[in-house]
Design a protein that fits this description.
It is built from nine helices and nine strands. By secondary structure, the chain is α/β, with parallel strands linked by helices. The protein has one domain: Rossmann fold (3-Layer(aba) Sandwich). β1, α1 and β2 form a beta-alpha-beta unit. α1 packs across α8 and α6 packs across α7. The chain is globular.
């Protein structure tokens, strides 16, 4: 339970879903964790529940000032930054590419790709002088093949995979590793909203994901979190520029497009409770 003992992590989108699962796991493994999220109530509640070594800060990842402040909070509250997790996300623009409004496209790219860029930028600002660090970003199976997500989401997640490789190349001489995790369908409120229309309907979501998963089980937030734990830890000291698939073999078995039909719109992070 001490794989991250003495390390300091920032996790964006930490109030729910994969971000919350990652924050809990990192904290359990000994890390000090800055929970960064726009959802103040759930984020602050999770920080209180974790207790010592947890700190919440409100962050909009499309705001450079906010992302910079989260990194600075890690330094001021806990004395440094060892791990940056760029996780915050939305489903974003859905529907036919011929009917996608530009403003929905731009908002999706801002959250899913520009937010990752800002996280890498400001984490590296602190990590380069220290000559060490691990930067992680959440991509998606939609970032490695087509047809598994909406157009803007797919483009952004492909961008995350590319940016991971590019940043890893630059930052390796500074002792900084840059990797990504690409989850498949995972039981979260956002996925539940997409699948069932109800962000709280976790059981139906779990059943439907399991039915379509090659391994016959549904992934939860803990599954990509464990992958990130490995990549964040010193056990992965020789790994950089890699995107680790956590998808039950979905990408080797093919997938069914689900976002290109129906009305266009913008799907954010649904609130539950």
């Amino acid at each position: 339970m001490d794989r991250l003992k003495g390390k300091v992590a920032v996790v964006t989108g930490a109030a729910s879903g994969i971000g919350a699962g990652t924050a809990r796991l990192f904290h359990a493994e000994g890390a000090c964790v800055v929970l960064a999220d726009m959802q103040e109530g759930p984020g602050a509640a999770l920080a209180r529940a974790l207790g010592a070594r947890a700190h919440f800060i409100r962050v909009d990842v499309t705001s450079e000032a906010d992302v910079s402040a989260a990194v600075d909070a890690a330094v001021s509250v806990f004395g440094g930054l060892d791990i940056m997790v760029n996780n915050a996300g939305i489903v974003g623009a859905v529907g036919s590419i011929a009917e996608t409004p530009l403003e929905d496209w731009n908002r999706t790219i801002a959250v899913l790709l520009t937010g990752v860029f800002l996280g890498i930028k400001h984490a590296s600002r602190v990590m380069i002088p220290r000559k060490r660090g691990s930067i992680l970003s959440v991509a998606s199976t939609a970032g490695v093949m087509g047809g598994l997500g909406p157009h803007a989401y797919t483009a952004a997640k492909h961008g995350v995979v590319g940016l991971t490789k590019s940043a890893a190349s630059e930052l390796a001489p500074h002792g900084i590793r840059v990797n990504a995790v690409a989850p498949g369908n995972t039981v979260t409120a956002m996925t539940a909203f997409v699948i069932t229309g109800d962000g709280a309907d976790q059981e139906t979501t779990r059943r439907r994901i399991a039915e379509g998963a090659p391994l016959g089980i549904a992934g939860g937030p803990e599954d990509p979190a464990y992958a990130m734990l490995y990549l964040a830890s010193d056990e992965a000291r020789y790994v950089t520029g890699h995107t680790l698939l956590v998808d039950s073999g979905q990408t080797v078995s093919g997938g069914i497009p689900t976002f290109h039909n129906g009305p266009s719109g913008l799907i954010g992070a649904p609130k539950v409770g």
